Amino acid sequence: MAVCARLCGVGPARGCRRRQQRRGPAETAAADSEPDTDPEEERIEAGVAAPAGPGGGPGAGLSPPPARCSLLELPPELLVEIFASLPGTDLPSLAQVCTKFRRILHTDTIWRRRCREEYGVCENLRKLEITGVSCRDVYAKLLHRYRHILGLWQPDIGPYGGLLNVVVDGLFIIGWMYLPPHDPHVDDPMRFKPLFRIHLMERKSATVECMYGHKGPHNGHIQIVKKDEFSTKCNQTDHHRMSGGRQEEFRTWLREEWGRTLEDIFHEHMQELILMKFIYTSQYDNCLTYRRIYLPPSHPDDLIKPGLFKGTYGSHGLEIVMLSFHGWRARGTKITGDPNIPAGQQTVEIDLRHRIQLPDVENLRNFNELSRLVLEVREQVRQEQQEASEGPALPQEQPSAQVPSGAAAEDSGEPGSGVAAVEQPAQSGQGQPFVLPVGVSSRSEDYPRTCRTCFYGTGLIAGHGFTSPERTPGVFVLFDEDRFGFLWLELKSFSLYSRVQAAFRNADAPSPQAFDEMLKNIQSLTS
Fold it and tell me: For a Cys staple, 443 with which of 31, 37, 184, 287, CB 3.0–4.6 Å?
């Protein structure tokens, strides 16, 4: 009978099919004559069958087990506490159990707690009573309905890309476009502006508003195209126009995007790039498609914590790059891009097996000396690749596995022998002087003068329109946990990268495989 109670939830009722299977015809007929009982009011029995009386039998002389209380018999205030601790997605099923549960689930306290714990809504939700909107409405018609668009996204804006963070902000869901600081201040904090918002105030359905332009919120639309993809549309693009026409719109955009006027930019090529970006990006009028991106997973043996960084890219200004680790490789993938190397492409790749031992400061100023060192390492890498292709694969060349500390250094004590040799200066707190060679240009002269270590790497360069792309040798320079640089040997240029100091929710990859697949997808869009 205990099994019956657990399976059917109503104990020894006549509707128990398991019990009927064990009865004979006479017992079944007798049971059918019993009056019906209400399953909602009947006690749920999970114990053994009642023992026999004092006259004998299997249960003679034994005290009866303590009766277990039915969930239906608990006071409503206790049920409210129990239901409020369950995930909001389970509550609709719970409401189907009985009328009592359904009535209790109309208690706003339950949904207020779900809004706070699942979506971080810290506003005083009691204020909603004035507008006639319940916390249940906020959860079901706003937060739960649009939960799939929370997190990080990359807009499809040709080669330029972007970084959108959709968050719950009070009683709103807001899409914030993250912008790098003004060139060349790479260490300044990120800037951001709202592109759209969704809210549930006086109406019983969520309202989507476009925030683009300078005339305030106006009517917009959001469509979830498929998993990990959604699109936005502005229904009143006239709100984006300015009375002064395109010239006024361009001047306003230039101040926001670059923090200066066109007259302040003397480089003619840079002026052309800026004007080209304005013409290209403004044609979308906030009617965009977004694809989900994840933050890179971290591993205890990673050189530094992976994540998002701001980097200097010459006349293109500052761009956002995602640093991730893949075994003995580290990769920098562009989240924002330019007409030469578009968003989604792998801008730099670092070979963590080959450390470059920099010369002393005086010799480091000599570009030819540094070039000689880097080209020697490149030749060594080519020989290793050739040997690997002719013979069995080297054990350490497994991109899917992390190189353990010390594993590569056991083979040799020479520079480039492994990760452990590289990490020794960082672990001991030591550093080595660093200066840029004479003739190497840098957008930011405020780079650190001490670095932890350096690696051989390659950088991706191409002509306008991503024509004739090729990987060229360079030097990855690790300064500290939050800053690194890359010296482009062929371009005689130096890029400085600084970590994006922001906490992002709903941005972790469900698995390393999902992250790798995401990288392939965003790269294929611009290949």
Answer: 184
